[in-house]
Amino acid sequence: MSRQFKYQDDELIEKAFNWKQMGRLFTFVKPYRSDVNKVVFVMTVFGMLTKLAIPFLISQAIDKALSPEDGTGSRGLLAGIMGVMLAMFLLRWWAQRYTILKTNEIGQKVIYDLRTRLFNHIQRLSFRFFDKRPAGSVLVRVTNDVNSLQDLFTNGVVNSAIDIAQLAGIILILLALNFKLGLAIMITVPLMFLVSTALRKKIRFAWQTVRIKQSRINSHLNESIQGIRVTQAFAQENENIAFFDGMNRSNIRSWNFASALNQLFGPVIEVTSAVGTLILLLYGTHLIRTGDMTVGLLVAFITYIGYFWEPITRLGQMYSQLLISMSSAERIFEYLDEKPAVAEKEEAIELPEVKGEVVFDQVEFGYEADRPALRSINLNIKPGMTVALVGHTGSGKSTIVNLLCRFYDTVKGSVRIDGIDVRDIQLDSLRKQIGIVMQDTFIFSGTIRDNIRYGRPDATDAEVEAAARSVRAHEFISNLPGGYDTEVEERGSALSMGQRQLLSFARALLADPRILILDEATASIDTETELRIQEAMRTLLADRTSFIVAHRLSTIRHADLIVVLDHGVIVEQGNHEQLMKHGGHYRNLIDAQYRFLSA
Ligand SMILES: Nc1ncnc2c1ncn2[C@@H]1O[C@H](COP(=O)(O)OP(=O)(O)OP(=O)(O)O)[C@@H](O)[C@H]1O
Fold first, then answer.
1. Atom 30 (ligand 1): residue with closest C-alpha?
2. Which Pfam families match (predicted)?
3. How would CATH label the architecture of 20-336?
4. Is 563 in the pocket of ligand 1 (CB under 6 A)?
5. Is it the case that residue 556 has pLDDT exceeding 60?
6. Is 258 exposed, middle or buried, given 0-12, 13-18 or 19+ CB atoms closer than 10 A?
7. Residue 322 alpha carbon to ligand 1 centre in Å
8. Is the CB of 399 under 6 A from ligand 1?
């Protein structure tokens, strides 16, 4: 099978237990500490003590009420013991119910906090962060990795505390009931510890492999769905299906292997506990014969020994879960620790109402260290000017606007708005005064009205409509079945290219930025829409400094300043007439376009 997909595995295999990480993870539980304490208290006192008391009550029923050594059995005592046992069962039932409800609630709250923190943080990360990572991999961390911690927080924390308490309680009871017998049984613990530690390492590794494969499936799924139109257009569905099937099979194989290893864990505990029971029976009957123990106590011992293994098994599983969670936690913290590449200075100022003067002063920039994307850029733009950026693909047009919005920081030189370096301005206040209309207009799911209001949520309905009218979008919106309240799908796939463009103009006009950046759509549209868009653009550009990444001749011609870029360098600047007269790069570009249009 020929295949083009390649996924970078960013999972971490074999994460050792890390106390620091653990501590950090548990800071998320801290706000709910009092709730956790309540649950542990209820479960320890009402749940565990009632459970531990029952075998003892049975032993008392056998030894004192049913067949006491002096032969004086008592129905009254038996009924009393039964009554207490019933009360204990009821209390235990209530305690368990309370624990389950409460732990789920705590777990959900912690996961909510974690997911919110992560999402909020990601929202503020710079473009550089997203340049390096496919959307699928970011998605996997916010969903899968956070979800994988869910179990730890819902059951893990509270149950482990309860299990440790139960284990301590049982050890005390066993030793108190019969010290020698208790000690004899515990000989098996180190044995089990050795075997299970060796096994657990393998199990952990196997589950990590499963997670890597699942992560690949997720990345592929994300890419496949986003690229479904291209896949279908190139009739690549079968290749895609075969590739997915391969990944899916490989995932199942790894899962089966990990699960089979996991299943070995149970028998190890069972064999060890059987050895314990054997010691108990042999030594216990000997103690009964020598008169050091009663039958009732042996029965209680047998039950307690069952209880003894329960928390050990659960804590063992919990430990494995903890190690898996560790790698998720690591991945989440890696994102949380990621500092935005474009950081806001503490003393950054709020940008006053902008007049619109923009200066690029000896600007140098590269996305990668050794590949300059812009060199020695000098621009001096007066308020209200319309600037067209032209040049071959990859010449650096979008990079100029990226620096103006401070999506990236310059390597050398500075970008100034009204004389203020953009690095000294609060990011929010900078970007609120700059409007951007992208080539690939992003329409969010919601109504048309919500989409126009995106940059100014407090705009009234009348203002929304006025903006739409100004950019000639009102007509097509009114013709939609629900008018302004028509729900558009994510990315606006039900709207035409031109309609999306007009919608984004309305959005930009409503936000009324002092500086506007317009990345012109390259797609050819019909002449009528083209005319409408031209008119709309004129409305949009009036009275503000505008940068247009220009593709249309008509736009370029009317610009106050045309900046021609070539391989990251400004090779010419001036207005249309000047540059045509000059007969350099610009003239070549225009001539090439005319030749193309008239061909
Ligand atoms: N996010 C990025 N990471 C690395 N390199 C980038 C990135 N974006 C752009 N580049 C590179 O920087 C250079 C300038 O790109 P830019 O997007 O500014 O060109 P452009 O003139 O806007 O092109 P187009 O007309 O095709 O949109 C190109 O060589 C491009 O490969």
1. 394
2. ABC_membrane, ABC_tran
3. Up-down Bundle (1.20)
4. no
5. yes
6. buried
7. 43
8. yes
Ligand 1: atom nearest CA of 439 is 27
Query: Alpha-carbon distance 67 to 77, whole Å?
Result: 12
ipTM of the complex: 0.95
Q: Provide mean pLDDT across the span 166-192.
A: 82
Query: 142: which 2 tokens?
Result: 């916010």
Nearest partner of 280 among 256, 302, 260, judged by Cα: 302
CATH number for 444-512: choose from 3.30.300.30, 3.40.50.300, 1.20.58.760, 3.10.450.50.
Answer: 3.40.50.300
- d(CA 584, ligand 1 centre) in Å: 23
The amino acid at 133: R
User: Are the C-beta atoms of 327 and 15 separated by less than 8 Å?
Assistant: yes
Distance 92 CA to ligand 1 centre (A): 66
Q: Is the CB of 126 under 6 A from ligand 1?
A: no
Q: Where are the domains of the chain?
A: 20-336, 444-512
- Among residues 353, 341, 358, the alpha carbon closest in space to that of 404 is found at 358
Task: Kindly state if the Cβ of 396 falls inside 6 Å of ligand 1.
Answer: yes
DSSP 69-124: TTS---HHHHHHHHHHHHHHHHHHHHHHHHHHHHHHHHHHHHHHHHHHHHHHHHHH
Q: Which atom of ligand 1 is nearest to the CA of 396?
A: 18
DSSP string, 188-228: HHHHHHHHHHHHHHHHHHHHHHHHHHHHHHHHHHHHHHHTH
pTM of the model: 0.68
Q: Is 131 in the pocket of ligand 1 (CB under 6 A)?
A: yes
Note whether 20-336 and 444-512 share their fold.
no
Among 128, 395, 563, name the best residue to mutate to test ligand 1's pocket (greatest count of ligand atoms within 8 A of Cβ): 395
Distance CA 438, CA 418 (A): 24
Tokens standing for residue 309: 């293994």
Phi (first) and psi of residue 367, to 5 degrees = -70, -35
On whether the CB atoms of residues 540 and 505 are closer than 8 A, the answer is: yes
Q: Is the CB of 398 under 6 A from ligand 1?
A: yes
Per-residue pLDDT of 31-87, as tens digits, reads 998 988 888 888 878 877 787 788 888 888 887 777 666 666 677 888 888 888 898
Q: Which of 260, 299, 267 is nearest to 280 (CA)?
A: 299
Using the atom order of ligand 1, give the atom closest to the CA of residue 549. Answer: 22
